Amino acid sequence: MNGFFNVVSTSPFNYDAAKQYVRDIQWGSFWISMGYVVVIFTIKKVMENRKPFNIKLPLNLWNLWLAVFSIAGSYVTSKALFSEIYNKSLTDSYCKNGDFFVGTPGLWTFLFCCSKIAELGDTIFIVLRKRPLMFLHWYHHVATLNYGFLSYVDGTAFNTWIVWLNFSVHAIMYSYYCLASVGVKIPAVIARSITFLQITQFAITHLILFHVGYLALVGTPCDTTPLAYWYCLLMEISYLVLFGNFFYQSYIKGGGKKFNKEKAVTKDVSQKVE
Predict the structure, then answer these.
(1) What stretch of H or E contains 114?
(2) Engineering a disulfide at 67: which of 35, 90, 174, 252 sits with its beta carbon 3.0 to 4.6 angstroms away?
């Protein structure tokens, strides 16, 4: 942890020191992600014959800090990304390492990478509260964490867009979770819109990756490595498939199970009032 605090407390932000720190803990983060899978399924098994934990306050605080963190990250990286586009070009914003990875946005990009370890805590709340644990949920945590560390060490330029998109979508998503966890009734159409935003995020990333691949084929190199590129492409394809299926199952098939559940609750409440 001393290395982490040294990186975040150094002013101005030292990008090379941050990359070295991530390189030093890269294998450790991989084993954390593997241990995470073992832990969540062990807890899930232990909880089979137990009552769900009432951990409302910790859940509220958890969603609150992630919402605030994501909002701040979205604000900082939005300014940095659009500055790259304005001062250089749209293509350079995802093909060439620039000012996005240094200074204040560089610090937030580093924090983004490290936060993927902290976000594993989402699943602990799910299994302790005996909520359904979907493959999509734990798989995307593992895949994103390992991609983040791999690509940060490799200096992958298109992480400008990946970091900005993820921060921005998470700002909305965790704000929604925060409101829902404190008891605010939010229409299912909002949840559908957030899932649609997630799918849009992956679609935009696909367009960028396809263009980066095309540029490589015609001899215009971009700042990435083959390993980081192919890992990201395969990861994003899997996300598009999994989130697309989730969207279909939850909001389209048979009228959408989330919409049907909302209607059932509304009908039950109205009958009680009558």
Answers:
(1) helix 103-118
(2) 174
Of the candidates 164, 50, 38, the one whose C-alpha atom is nearest the C-alpha of residue 101 is 164
Burial class (CB in 10 A: 0-12, 13-18, 19+), 54: exposed
The b/e string for 133-143 (b: 16+ C-beta within 10 A; e otherwise) is eeeebbebbbb
The residues annotated with a catalytic role in the active site are: 140
- In angstroms, the CA 268 to CA 95 distance is 54
Could you give the CA distance from residue 182 to residue 196 in angstroms, rounded to a whole number?
A: 24
Q: In terms of Cα–Cα distance, which of 105, 51, 60, 229 is closest to 157?
A: 229
Hey, is 120 helix, strand or coil?
coil
pLDDT digits (tens, 9 = 90+) for 60-87: 999 999 999 999 999 999 999 999 999 9
Report d(CA 162, CA 205) in Å as an integer. 7
Query: What CA–CA distance (Å, rounded) separates 81 from 94?
Result: 9
Mean per-residue pLDDT over the chain, rounded: 92
The C-alpha atoms of residue 30 and residue 100 are separated, in whole angstroms, by: 26
Of 156, 142, 145, 174, nearest in space to 73 by CA:
174
Say whether 182 sits in a helix, a strand or coil: coil
Predicted TM-score of the model (pTM): 0.92
